[in-house]
Every structure is written in C-alpha cells, then in structure tokens.
Amino acid sequence: MEKNPEARGSGAPALELRDVTYAYASRPRLKILNGVSASFEEGVMYAVVGPSGCGKSTLLSLLGGLDVPVSGEVAAAGAPLGRGDLARHRRENVAFVFQGYNLVDYLTPAENVALATRLPALPLLEKVGISAEDARRSVLALSGGQQQRVAIARALGSDARALLCDEPTGSLDEDTADEIADLLVRAAHEEGRCVVAVTHSRDLARRADRVLRLKRGRLVRER
Amino acid sequence: MPFPRRALLYLARKRGKTLTLLALLFVVAALALTSWSIRGAAQTAQLNVRQALGGTFTVEPDSSNMSNWGSSSVGSGSQITFQGDPLTADFVREVVEGVDGVRGGSGSVSNVLIPETTDGSAALELVEGADGDSSLAAAYAGDDFGRTVQFYAVSDSAFDSYFANGYLRLVDGEPVTEDSGDGVLVSREFAEKNGLAVGDEFSVRRATVHAQMAGIDVEDTRTRVRVAGVFEPTAKSQADLASWSMDNAIFGTISTLDHAREGTAEQGYDRVTFQVDDPAELGRITGEVEGLDALAGKGYLVSADTSDVDAVSAPLENMDRLVTALAAASVAVGAVVLYLVLSGRVRDRLHESGVLLSLGLSRASVVGQYLCEVLLVAAVAFALAVPASSLAARTMGDALLGSASESVQTGGGDGGVSTADGVSTVSGDPFAPTFEVDGASFTDIEVEVGPTSVAALFGVGIGVSAAAVLLASLPLRRMGPREILSTLS
Fold first, then answer.
1. Residues B193 and B265 placed together within one structural domain of the fold
2. Do both B36 and B108 map to the same domain?
3. Do A158 and B359 count as a contact with CB atoms less than 8 A apart?
4. Is a pLDDT exceeding 50 seen at residue B439?
5. Cβ–Cβ below 8 Å for A115 and B1
6. Searching chain B, which residue's CA lies closest to the CA of residue A117?
7. Is the ipTM of this complex over 0.85?
C-alpha cells in the first residue's frame, strides 16, 4: 500500500466543513463542534478518531446531511448545502456504512444491493468477495464480515462520491476487520471515492491516508 | 427496487407476520360484513312489516258520546241509531282527495242475509266449516238463521280492509264499488258449489227471525244480485257460526243491503277504513282528517291503531339496534386493533425504515411499501371474508330473525280481527271471521351478503387500513434523519 498520503487525492473536495459549530438544542452552550473547518477530497481515505462522545458521529451526520450546523456551512463539490438540499445530498452525494451492517433482513444480499443501485448486483458483490451462491441466500445466514461486505457493496453500488463509515469494523474480528479495511482503502484509491471513517480502531486508522482527531470541539489533523 | 416489489418480497418471506395480519383483517372484515348483512336483512324485514301491515285509520260514529245517538222503534222493538250525518261514499272521496298520503278508503256496513236461487225456491249450498266458540249455533238450531252468511256492503272493495290487507284476493271479475248496483263478490268455493260464474244471478233475503222482528214479510226483503267478481281467501277463517266464515261471505253495495234491510243506506256506513301510504304519517293524516268540515264537531271518532304495527316492529327494531351496535363496534374495535397492530409493525420496522432512508429512498417510498403490503393482505382477507361471512350471516341471521319472528307472532294486538301475524283487519265487529295465517311471513327473509355490502367492505376496509398505516407512519414521517441514524447505532 502506498504510504505517501500527501500524494493521494485529486484535490477536488467532495465534502467541506466551513467554520462549522454544532450544539445540541437541549444544551446550546456545550459546543460539540466549535468553528471546525475541513476539506475531504475524492480519492482519499480519512479516519476520524477521538474519545467516545466527542462528536465523531455528529461530524458524520453533518457531512451526510442528516443534521445541520448551528453556524457555518457544509458544502458538497464546492456548493454549500441549504436545508432544502439535504435529501438530494443524501441520495446523490453520500453513502453510509454502519457498524451494525444494517441490511434489510428479508432481502437477499443481491436485493440489498439493488436497493441502492440499478447496476447488476452480482459483480458488485463478487468485487467484495461474496459468491453468486451467497448472494442469493438470506442475509441472516451470512457471517458478520460477509454482511459488512454486502453493506460496502451496496454503498459502492451507489453513485455517491463519498462513503461515510461509522465504526465499520467495530464488531468484527481482527482478520475480517482487516479485509473490510482493504475494501475501504480500495474504494478510495481505485474508485477515487472520498472515504470518511469514524473509528476507535487503531488498525483502521493506520490504514487511512489521513487521520483527524476530534478534541474539545476542534478537528486536528494528526497525519 | 420499486416499493411494490419490496412489499411483495416482505409478504412472501415474512410469512408468519403476513398470516397474522391476514387473520386479523379476515376476522374484522368477516365480523363487520356479517353484522352489516344481518342489519340489512333486519331493516328489510322492518320495511316488509310496514308495507305488509300498511297504515290504516278508521272513521266511525263515537259511541262513547251518547248525545249523538237516538232511539227509534222498529217493528215490535226499538233500535239505537246515530243521529249525525251518515258516512257515505262522498265522504270517502272527500278525504282521499283532500288529505295528502291517503291511498284510498272504503265504507263498510255488514249484516247477515240468506243466499238463495233467483226465485227463492231453494237455498244455495254453503261452504261447510266449524262453528266457533259462541253459543249462537245452538240458539238458532232449526231456524233458517243457521243458513245466514255475512253480507258486507262496501263503497270500494279494493280498499276494504280484508282485500287491502291481502286476506282476500280477487281472482275473477272486478271489484265492487257503490256504482256496481246489484254486483256482488263471492268466494271461489261458494261459486263452485253453486255453479256460479261472473255474470250469473242469485238472490239474498233477510232471515225469517229478523223479518218477523221488523214486522215485515220476508219475501219483501228479497233482492236479486249478480256475480261481479270471485275472490279467494288467502288463509282459513273461522266465525261464531260456521256459515259466517269468509268462504260464504258476500261483498256487495249498500243499495243491495238497503233493499234487504231498509234504512241501511239512510244510516250510512258503520265505519270507513282508510289506507295510508306510510304508517309513520298516520299522526299528521288523522289530524288533518279530524279538521275536515265534514267531520269537525259532528260526533265522529277518528282512530289509528298502531299497536299491531308496533308489536310487530318492536322486536325487529330491537334486533336492528343490537346488530347496528355490533356492526359499529366491530368496525370501531377493528379499526383500533388494526391501528395498534400496524403502528406496532411500523415501530418494529423503524430500523428498516432508517436503513431505507439512509440509502436515499424517500419517505413516500417507505410508507408506500407499508401501505402496499397492508392493502394487498387486506384485499385477500376481504375476498376470503365474503364467502365466510355469507355463511355466518345466513346461519346467525336465520336464528336471530327467526326468534324475532316468533316474538312477532305472539304479540298480536287486542280486539278486532287478529291474525297469527298480529294483523288487525277489522275493528269493532265481534262477529267478523278471524284468519289463521301461516307463520311463514314477511319476516321470513333470506340473509345475504349483497354486492353493496361487499363494495362497502372493500371501500371502508381499504380506507380504514390505509388510514391506520398512515397514522401509524406519523412517527416515521416526523422523525428527523439524525434520530433515524441514532436508531441504527
């Protein structure tokens, strides 16, 4: 794997945070994010690390258009997102990968992928290591690692330029987590997607091109 | 993937949940449809009762106020007669034409006469029957009084209560009115026994004992009559004297009776019975009749006896109320249970909803899938409920309406001529024949699940199901994306 992160990326920001401040409505004085600015480029894998409760998931929610900042703005492909743009932003610009896989349990892996894309599901599943036979089984019959692969295939099947991953290896064993990390790195490096992974995993963070630490409402680049 | 396909896949692969919902919708639909069908049958039965009984009111001299009555001598005796204006065919016409809702009416006065051949050389043969419970038969044994029949002088036989209420049916010839002259109606059996047909003649006269009491020659009371029509009783009847049964009765004009019993025309009809279109209008109609110049303050009594209608209708109305309450309760409870079940399903599937929303699917697509699932199951459940409720409605309806009918048949009114149906045909004539009517009647109704009920089930059922899904989906539509995300963590 290439170890020169500065060389990664097209330079085109897929997502940007511009002086973003966020606080919960119930506790407006406690600023979870305080004037955060950051740019997330295509072709780069980012790891966002920090202690529990520091606001990592909130950061992901703002990037994914699931929530809006108190002040500042979020931009996609250079264009600021208004409140009216959020649904389209979620549909067109971003795809989520969650710790709990979040597959629809009454659909097969192929059908789960078909939820997000009109592309043929089997090649996408094969790309993440799911055989054609497994693609037609119930998702409940798959292992955790296989389910996460299906979730990644589903995300890769969409047209989204940014993959937003919330603890994608959090419930997987070491070997499987390593395989999932490979898939995310390839999504960034081979498909030119912007991958932002919120994680506690040092291994996953180590695989990322850039590591950002969220501390006391500020985002600090570690690497 | 379009939401109808997702809905189909869910229903096919979550068979337990699908069958549970199917069973729930089936039970609610079958219950509602069954009670609705029985309600419809009960209302039809009520309508039939009203139409069968019709509405009648009677105008007759008020016998409770003796200031309108006077005594006059007749032969060796005396009689009490009404002193006011007589009830005539003109009066009947005035009421029918002047009061809205009155279908028609007929004056009626009766007496007993003896039918004989035209020249009086031989008595006509009477239809045999059993004597009633009174002692009349024994009292007149050996006298020609035992050969008397009831002669009803009517102003329009079509509106006479016996014909209007269906106890007699004209099967040949035409009705008798005041313009019929010597025309009479006789029963088919009486006509056959004596070889009579429409157009044939015979004679009637008073009984010897009556002529002697009036001090007149019995031959002077003889009058020739012509058969204008033939009727047929629709049920067996019985009277105090066997010869007074309806099989021997003669319906004719008041002029014929006046010839046999002089003074009848001057006295007018004993009573006039009017038929109305709707018994519910009786109160208004009798009020207007009482206000007519021909009646007001002239000693007449206008009475509308609705006790028979009430007695017949009450059990059916009670059942109608019960079944209506059951139908409403089943729909209400069904809707509430459906809402609770569906809201539980939506709550259980919040996670799935969040996944779909995070994949960029719209809320409309997610809710549309749930709606599609429920409507598909509802359509199958309703289709299955139709034959099931048809069977249940027939079984339960027969039992319910049967018991209501029994209660109807034991609830006849007092006085008058009460039949097994509780129908009063003539009031105030203690010697009139009574009918024995078959128990199968207007309440013998087939309970069916009709196309209207099925259409209503599908319309209301689909509407309620859709409303329940939309209501149950409110939390989903109100939740922000962040909340949905938190449900996924």
1. yes
2. no
3. yes
4. no
5. yes
6. B1
7. no
B267: containing domain: 89-275
Are B119 and B8 contained in the same domain?
Answer: no
Report which DSSP code applies to B415: S
Contact B364/A at CB under 8 A: no
B408 in any annotated domain: yes
Give dist(CA A150, CA A156) in Å, integer.
Answer: 10
B chain contacts of residue A106, beta-carbon cutoff 8 Å: 9-10, 13-14
Would residue B196 count as lying in a domain?
Answer: yes
Query: Does residue B258 sit in the same domain as residue B364?
Result: no
At B24, the amino acid letter reads L
Of A105, A114, A158, the CB nearest to B1: A114
- Percent of chain B past pLDDT 90, that is, above it, reads 31
Q: Report the residue of chain B nearest A118, measured CA to CA.
A: B1
Average the pLDDT over each of A112-121, B35-44, B223-232, B239-248 and give the range with the smallest value: B35-44
List C-alpha distances in Å: B399 to B42, B86, B382.
Answer: 12, 51, 25
Q: Over the range A61-74, which residues count as b (16 or more CB within 10 Å of their CB) and which as e?
A: bbbbbbbbbeebbb
Question: Read out DSSP for A71-117?
Answer: EEEEEETTEEPPGGGHHHHHHHTEEEEETT----TTS-HHHHHHTT-
Do B222 and B363 lie in one domain? The reply is no
CB of A134 within 8 A of CB of A146? yes
> In the structure, what pLDDT confidence band is assigned to residue B313 with cuts at 50, 70 and 90?
low
Are residues B268 and B316 located together in one domain of the fold? no
Of A67, A92, A98, the CB nearest to B482: A67
Q: Which residue has the tokens 């064993």?
A: A173
The residue-averaged pLDDT of B380-386 equals: 92
Q: Are residues B144 and B40 in the same domain?
A: no
Task: For residue B53, name the pLDDT band (cuts at 50, 70, 90).
Answer: low
Find out whether A217 and A33 touch, Cβ atoms under 8 Å. yes
* CA-based nearest residue in chain B for residue A116: B359
How are the residues of chain B apportioned to helix, strand and coil, as percentages rounded to the nearest 5?
55, 20, 30
Q: What share of chain A is helix, strand, coil (3-state, %, to 5)?
A: 35, 25, 40
Q: Is residue B243 part of a domain?
A: yes
